Amino acid sequence: MQKLSNIFRKIVLITGILNFPIGLMMIVPAFINPNPETLITTVVVGAFIMFAGATLVWSSRDLQTRASIVVWNGLVRAIGVLTVIYTTTIGNVPMEQIVITGLDLMLALIYTIGSVKVTGISFGKLLSGKS
Q: What is the DSSP string of 8-50?
């Protein structure tokens, strides 16, 4: 179980770190080619992605007490997956987005199932922050 816990902690840490360049890759182009209709939303979403990364990095330091944050990050990713699936029914979605969505689905499952397994705390308690 200790090995699983270490692997899970590393996954949470690495994916949290990777959120920073993803957020920046949204923010920088938004300022290079500003569009008044989307600038604010794009920059705020990019900043929130970096914030989510910071919370994952922080959570990886003490999963027993911070796993709720990891579970919620997984749920946000699952909502993103559902949104992409819905979007494919009403329009075209670039193949790159489909690939990213597949990765997000895997992370959503890893975050939620892994948090329960590693902490021994039920999904319901993690969801409600009663860890």
A: HHHHHHHHHHHHHHHHHHHHHHHHHS--TTTHHHHHHHHHHHH
